[in-house]
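Forum: Protein Structure Q&A
Topic: Joint prediction for protein chains with partners

I've read a bunch of threads here and the consensus seems to be that you should model interacting components together rather than docking separate models afterwards. I'd like to see that in practice. Below is the full input, 978 residues plus whatever partners are listed. Could one of the regulars post the assembled result?
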Amino acid sequence: MSLDTNTRNNLLFQLGEILPEEYLLTSEEAIKPYECDGLSAYQKLPVAVVLPETIEQVQRITKICSQLKVPIVARGAGTGLSGGALPHEGGIILGLSRFNKIEKIDTDNLTATVQPGVRNLAITEAARPFGLYYAPDPSSQIACSIGGNVAENAGGVHCLKYGLTVHNVQQVTIVTVDGELVTLGSQTLDTPGYDLLALITGSEGMLGIIVEIVVKLLPKPHAVKVLMASFKKVEDAGNAVANIIAEGVIPAGLEMMDKPAIHAAEAFAKANYPLDAEAILLCELDGSEQQLAEQIETVSETLRNANADDIVIADSADEQARLWAGRKSAFPAVGRISPDYYCMDGTIPRKQIAYVLKRISELSEECGLRVANVFHAGDGNLHPLILYDANKEGELEKTEKFGADILTLCVEVGGTITGEHGVGHEKIDQMCVQFSPEELTQFFAVKNAFDPDALLNPGKAVPTLHRCAELGGMHVHNGQLPHPEIPRF
Amino acid sequence: MSLDTNTRNNLLFQLGEILPEEYLLTSEEAIKPYECDGLSAYQKLPVAVVLPETIEQVQRITKICSQLKVPIVARGAGTGLSGGALPHEGGIILGLSRFNKIEKIDTDNLTATVQPGVRNLAITEAARPFGLYYAPDPSSQIACSIGGNVAENAGGVHCLKYGLTVHNVQQVTIVTVDGELVTLGSQTLDTPGYDLLALITGSEGMLGIIVEIVVKLLPKPHAVKVLMASFKKVEDAGNAVANIIAEGVIPAGLEMMDKPAIHAAEAFAKANYPLDAEAILLCELDGSEQQLAEQIETVSETLRNANADDIVIADSADEQARLWAGRKSAFPAVGRISPDYYCMDGTIPRKQIAYVLKRISELSEECGLRVANVFHAGDGNLHPLILYDANKEGELEKTEKFGADILTLCVEVGGTITGEHGVGHEKIDQMCVQFSPEELTQFFAVKNAFDPDALLNPGKAVPTLHRCAELGGMHVHNGQLPHPEIPRF
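Posted by a regular:
Agreed with the consensus. Here's the joint model:
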């Protein structure tokens, strides 16, 4: 898979002709920081790292790589959690960190035009003076780049009400693998032709290199309140989530934590969480004062009807910050109670939350690994944290197996193997569970339409049929495999 | 382009083997009703019309057509306005009217599983007992089918707040051109892999045959109010639209009519519209009583600041119905004041409304044809109605030219050539204005990934580069052609 010497030399010579020295990294010392992304369990060194500054440079780089058949892995801030930016040992990393300009805040059309290397939070900061913000807020928003957000169709706490990245992007300009500049979407509501904007969103760097993005901005809500409800039964908390949505209230955020997560977070962040609860829900509501009053009434009643033990309403900014602090520090908090943890990411229909948590707890007992659950409940987006010790022999493998079982469980109940982290390198085998050979064949055909030589991020996101066959008929089609114990609501 | 006798006979023989007699229409009398869709200016007779009842039949039909290289034009209720279901003279019409079952209303996950021939309004009717409804509401909703809605990414009055069809569809099952069954999307928030669900939505029957759809349902809003504001200047009305959205209020509907449309509608529907106004806005708000009170205050203030002459708030259902009656009857009302009219459909950034209406009025004077404007202002989705007389020689051609000029104008100000009617047969030449050769090439590649022999709805939606070249370098890239008189907000 690595490059032969001739091609390597030719590649570096040609790249050197178009890029200043500090834009082309080849020494092991210089490229070492690019060996992995946020999923650091997997590491590889690329042939070179290029850090272009202009669209023209990106076009030239892709043309050179196309001509020499050299793989290209695009990289934003490298915060991804599924190994989507893991280098290819025979290819280059195309880093977009120099594309860090906010080109325009358009207050009339409520959009921002930005380069892909701009940090997610920087867009909201730039829009703040105009009373506007960019809604999708992955927890890495202080560091992650908007280009990476588009490539992974990133989510976040507020995506329940305001949508995923795909719902908040209006136009994307890409450089194709053969160096052409193509604009997808438009500045208006709808665009004729096939919806290539949605297609590129979440395509994990496999269809083109994103070089400019127009995102939608929203007016900031007037006010915010946060409720915390505690439950004696996990099942009741799960049902409360579905019932709130069914009442027609879409909270700005609706998060759930189970007992192990509550205890870890409380020990770490002193958030005043109830230690006797089996589960808590955090519900953020936004809008005008009047809207808030009414939503709080509806949500409180729904929570009580779902057997909530206690409901706390945080009015002040301080109280709200304290309640969120526990949730936001849940990952590092879990890090304190276990040498290592593995964060999974799957999505299930809301009504299946109670059942899936029960099954995860059974799987946890079967394999002898603890698990803490912290997740975007409103979206049905689970983040089970599997606690393990990498220094114990065989425990990483046991953890990976447990993780894979959780993802298969998600698919079995009609869910999917990813909520917001993407497939990347991590979940490529689970794609064989999610999709049928016919569906994967259609993916290959689309890939081929953009990148016939498979040079863009090869080996990620979409497995070959051969790979799926090797894993052996794992396919479970949208939960249609008969599985008697799954409740069919 | 028509079939040779051998292929035709072979086709009819094979179709006859798998379909009962009344499912396979071949006599001119039987197929005549399928010669056009809602754009009746264009008519063609297909070789045959098939009306399958099961997915298996659709699979067999596509396999037969694939093998014989016979074009397939899928058709729902035939209400489309861009000629997307115009038959191919060498192909078959695959009518989906027998796919008319609502398979499931899922009140837990707020979805409905329906066959493609189900009428749009029938979904809302079926969901009503559960306090739910399906949001996108094209004006043809009493007749149009949900399969056609997905194929055209249909809009409607309420799409400003609740999104287009693409935002309200969760899963679509298609039969590919070679007869494979493929499920796109899932029952959860996000799905791994390329976003083929968004890709199929709005693809105008060119990528696959839709055989099942899972749509999202919403809880019915508690209450509704309608405001009407009148303006002495069209420009002020246009600005008011942008300002309402910028205030953070997203009305359920925000419609605009200009003077000719007001006069025609008032004469027809007696809606109590102000005849001295240059423009009126109709604004529908929904939510709880408290939310409504607050939104009405914000909207009223914004309207006054934008120089609204008069604001009428319709509280009662009767008053509201009367205000909407004028808007809803605007098309037939215009039909009374002109022998013929041609309904255009383009989208522009909201801030460009005033400028574009001024230019349309100038173009109207230049070519001597009257125009009435009735449109989804909140979306920037224009529907200029060009008034003409088809019996006057050359007037249809002049009308088509005027219509094309309006669409080019939409693209010049950063808009698009369609809002909700699709490209179909009607606007295929304007696609050369909208997209560059590189962008069209990417469309071809995607088409090729689904339908390498171009059998699905050939000649629609995406023009060949050859055709664009014949029309002569018309390309204006997202308003980037220098055009000094266009205000750049």
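Chain A touches chain B through 88 residues (CB under 8 Å).
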